[in-house]
Amino acid sequence: MSAGSVLVIKLGALGDFVQALGPLAAIRAQHPRDNIILLTTRPYVEFAEASGYVNTVWLDSRPKLFEINKWRSLRRWLRRGKFRRIYDLQTSDRSSFYFKLFYPDKPPAWSGIARGCSHPHDNPNRNAMHTIDRQREQLTKAGVRMAGFDDIANLDLSWATADVEHLSVPERFALLVPGGAQHRPAKRWPLENYKALAAQLAERGVIPVLIGGPDEQATTHEIAAAVPSALDLADKTDLLQLAELGRRAEVAIGNDTGPMHLIAAVGAPSVVLYSDESDPALCGQRGKAVTIVRRPSLAELSVEDVLGTLAI
Question: What is the pairing mode between strands 56-59 and 35-40?
C-alpha cells in the first residue's frame, strides 16, 4: 500500500494524553511509511514531537461556536489533508463534530464515535471502561495491532527525557504533586497533610521536590516554607523534564492529576490519592509500580496511612 497521510486527534488533558501514548505508538507501527499528523493543543506540541510517533504536529485552536473564520480555516485544512485515515483518540463531542466538516465530500476512513464513521467504537459500555482499555478496543476494531502497545508499563519511553541538572535536584528525593484541577477541590489531599508528609520525608533523608503548574505555586510555596529543605519546582519544568525527574525519583506521591500519570508511566514508584470524586477503575494511573490509596473523602486519609505505603 502506498504511503499517505494519517491524522490522529488528541487534544488533552495531560493524563489523557499520557494514556494515549500506547495507541500513538501502535498507530506509528501500523503506518510506518505514512505521514502521521497529530492534531493537538499547545501544552503537548514539544512532547509529541519528541516522541517520534508522529511526523508533524498541528495546533488545534479549538474554535468557539461564534468564531466562524476559525471553523472555516479548520475545515479547509481537514479537507485539503487528503487523509487516508483519521484516528480520533479524543472521542469528544468536539472531535466528533470535526467529522461533519468534510460534508458534502465523503470523509476519510474514521476511527472514533462520530455518527456514520467507517470504524465506530460502538461498544455501549465504552464509558465504563478504563481509558487505556477503551482505546485498545477502539483501535483493535479499526484493525490496528495493539500487541506490545497496550500496557504503558512496558512502553519504551526513553525518548521522554531532558536535561534537569540546572534544577539542582538532590541525590535522594521524592516528588510531591499536591495540586489538581481548581474546580475540583475534593480531589486534593489537605495541604496540612502534605506539609506533614514533606517533613517526615525530609527527616528520613529523602528531600521533597514539589511539582505543579502556575496555579499550584501558592500551594507549593506554602509547603516549602514549612519544610525549608524542600525544593519547589512548581512552574519550572516542562513535560520532558518532569518525565526525567520521575525516572530519578525514589517515590512520587500526589493527587489524581495529570503529572502523576506521566510520572507513573516512566516507572516511578507512585502513590496516588483518590477520593470518591474520581474513579481509578476508569482513569487510574498505570505504570510499573502504582499504588492507589482511596477514601470517600481525602480528609479521612491520614499522613500515617500514606507513609505506610512507602518503602523508604
Answer: parallel
Alpha carbons 114 and 223: distance in angstroms, whole number: 46
- Complete domains list, the chain, with CATH: 5-154 (3.40.50.2000), 165-307 (3.40.50.2000)
Return mean pLDDT, the chain: 97
**257 DSSP 8-state letter:** S
- Cell numbers standing for residue 22: 500506547
**CA 39 to CA 58: how far, in whole Å?**
5
DSSP 171: S
pLDDT at residue 2 is higher than 70: no
Q: What is the DSSP string of 33-81?
A: TSEEEEEE-GGGHHHHHHHSS-SEEEE-----TT-HHHHHHHHHHHHHT
pLDDT digits (tens, 9 = 90+) for 129-179: 999 999 999 999 999 999 999 999 999 999 999 999 999 999 999 999 999
CA distances from 52 to 9, 98, 129 (A): 16, 25, 28
Name the H helices within the chain: 14-19, 21-30, 45-51, 68-80, 93-100, 131-141, 191-203, 217-226, 239-248, 258-265, 280-283, 303-307
Cell of 257: 492529576
pLDDT at position 1 is 39
pLDDT in tens, 289-304: 999 999 999 999 999 9
The torsion angles phi and psi of 280, rounded to 5 degrees, stand at -65, -20
**Distance (Å, whole) CA 67 – CA 205:** 54
